[in-house]
Predict the structure.
Amino acid sequence: MTTQNGRCVICGKALSEDNPGIPILGWARDLVGTDGIAHYLCISRLANETGYARGATPWSIGRPHPALVDLVERRVLTPCRVFEPGPGHGDNALYLASHGFDVTAADISPTAISILRARAVSLGVSLNVIQAEVIYGLDSLADQFDVVFERSFLQTLPPQMRPRYVQRIVSLLRDEGQYVGIIRGPRYPPPNTQPYAFSRQDLTNLFERHLTILEITPTVSGHGENELSFWLTRARPKR
Ligand SMILES: C[S@@+](CC[C@H](N)C(=O)[O-])C[C@H]1O[C@@H](n2cnc3c(N)ncnc32)[C@H](O)[C@@H]1O
C-alpha cells in the first residue's frame, strides 16, 4: 500500500487530524482504481461520484425500504421534518416526501443529486435536495429536524469517522427528535472493509454515549433476493 509520505493519493495534499486519511478498500478501490491512503473527503466524493456516473450502485433497491414503509404505515413515523444523509437515488426520501413528510436530503455525489432532483420533478414530489458532505458540513441545519433517517449511510464510514457522524445526528435533531437507521448487519468474510458491517453490540457501543436506543431489530437489505441481514435502529438523543 502506498502512503506517499503522509499525503492523500487522490489530491496529493498532506493528511491531517482534521481531514484524516483512510485506506481505499473494497468497492471504493474498484471504482477509484488505486490503492493507498486518501483523505476521507476525497475518497468519499470520488468513489461515490464515480459509482453514480457509471451506474455502479449495487446498494440501490429501486423502492422504499420495507422497514421504513412499515414504520409509516404503523404510524410510528408521522409527517414531520426529516433529514436524510446520503439519499442516493432517493427511493426513501421520495417515499417520505410523497407521504406528507418535509424532507431535506444531502448527498456528496453531484450525479446522485441530479438523478434525485429529476425523479422528484417527474413524480411531482417536493423536497429539499442539497449537494453537501454530511460529516463536516451542514452546521447551518442544526436543531431543525424531528427525524434523521438513513439507509446504508453508516456502512460507508470508516471507524474513525463514526463518532463525528453520531455528533452530526445529535446536532441536526430537535429535542424530541429521533434517529432511524437501516444499517448493514454482520457478514463474513471479508472482515472490516467498505461497506462495513455492524453487530448489535457495535451499534450499541457507537450510539449509547449520545443516544438512548429504542430498538435494534433485525431486518433485510431490501433487495428482495440474496437478502443480507440489516438492523432497523431507532434512538433518541440524550440531552
Ligand atoms: C451506500 S449509498 C446508499 C444510498 C441510499 N441511501 C440507498 O439506500 O440507496 C451511500 C450514499 O451516501 C453518499 N455519501 C457517502 N458519504 C457521504 C458523505 N460524507 N456526505 C454525504 N453523502 C455521502 C453516497 O454518495 C451514496 O449516495
The helical segments are 26-32, 40-54, 66-73, 91-97, 110-123, 162-172, 200-207. The two ends are 43 Å apart (CA to CA). The longest strand covers residues 173-184. Residues 44, 48, 59-60, 85-89, 106-109, 112, 133-135, 151-153, 156 surround S-adenosylmethionine (CB under 6 Å).
